[in-house]
Amino acid sequence: MDAFESNLPKEIVPDPLHTSFNPRREEYAVSGKILRQRSVFDLDKEGFSPLHAAAAAGQVDTVRAFLGIDKKLCRIKGRDGKTPLHAATMRGKTDVIREIVSSCVDCLEDETVQGQTALHLAVLHQEIEAVIAIVELITETNQIEVLYKKDEQGNTALHLATWRKNRQVIEVLVQAIPEESRTFEVNAMNKMGLSALDLLVMFPSEAGDREVHAKLIETGAQRGRDIGTTNVERTTSTSTCQMESQSHKDLVKYFTFKKHRDSPSEARSALLVVASLVATATFQASLTPPGGTWQDSYVPDVSKNITSVNTTTNQQARTAGQSIMGTFNGVAFTLFVFFNTIGFSVSLSMLNILTLGFPLRFQLQVCMMAMYFSHNTAMISIAPDHVKLYCILITSILPATTPSLMRLLEKTIGMLSRFFHSMLQKIC
């Protein structure tokens, strides 16, 4: 069951919409006062609009009033790409579902970032009344193709209903499919090469399997291996490698930041943690550079005229507290100072931007300035005399120009990336 569950959305995760909206605390009634304070198109910190909250709470009159202002509101996408119809569907608010669809039929086709329609979500959340209402609306509006839509893993609503072992939902879905195309659609394959009947056989449960199996067989359902397809090679090593590669791509895609899925507050928190770690690591490196520092001072006695090539490191001129690496390799030490200063400066710049509007921000800026001067003092102090001037210039000029350099570098890399991408397309 793990192989299939890993390709399903984690619907059991607490819904931010559920936790962020309390109809007793904040009624989204359409009054001039409220609408002046907040635009109906604005998303809150959790990534949802007032219409999302009203739809999830089942406030039909409020939803109707919002849609009276602008019917485009029914297609506004919030977190995870969910529309108000999706929010109402996940709570089983059938009256709201009908109200929204009556204002905008096309919203039945809207998909989340996982490629799920309202029908997918109703099946996943086992809202049977919502499934029935949506299927009826699909039939009434002659949008049968919505029944066949697949999510990003290639699962149709029937796949999900079979995985959930929900016989009533399966009956509703199968009955809605036109008889002339029923056999074909019931045997649709997902990206793993599994049909609905495959899911039933592969993931057995203690109850309900027999009735579901009988219903699927009655409609002409088959196992994937029995369906005449040449697109899926399920038993070869090549297929296994392809599936592993696809899983890796899906994993990277899952953890990639998505604007409509991930809230800005969570992204800012993550960036604050990363920037703090970089600032800590680079500041620590300025105190303990690679190779350490000399623990004592030594000045060779010139009168002894030591010219032997076998002079040991203990006879090298040095000053206590200066970098050992810098004493013997000034170029390497200068590069270390350069890149360490870049990392430290950029992390402080990120912290400064991410804490805009924070309480006690002035005190925080004082702390960052103190860290900045401490870092510069440490780097200059451990620099040997023959590279000290370079280190002073780097630690003084580079932090001041970091924001401008970052913007210039980002723009340059973007231009080069687009150039090489266009060249690659021409070559292909």
Question: What is the element layout, followed by pairings?
Answer:
Layout: H1 2-5, H2 16-20, H3 32-37, H4 50-57, H5 60-69, H6 84-90, H7 94-103, H8 118-124, H9 128-140, H10 157-163, H11 167-176, H12 182-186, H13 196-202, H14 209-218, H15 237-255, H16 264-287, H17 324-328, H18 330-354, H19 361-382, H20 388-427
Helix pairs in contact: 4-6, 5-7, 6-7, 6-8, 7-9, 8-9, 9-11, 10-11, 10-13, 16-18, 18-19, 18-20, 19-20
Description:
Helices cover 57% and strands 0% of the residues. It is mainly alpha-helical. The protein folds into 2 domains: 2-226, Alpha Horseshoe (Serine Threonine Protein Phosphatase 5, Tetratricopeptide repeat), CATH 1.25.40.20; 264-299 and 312-427, no CATH class. It is elongated, with a radius of gyration of 32 Å. Mean pLDDT is 78; it is low at 1-37, 229-243 and 306-313.
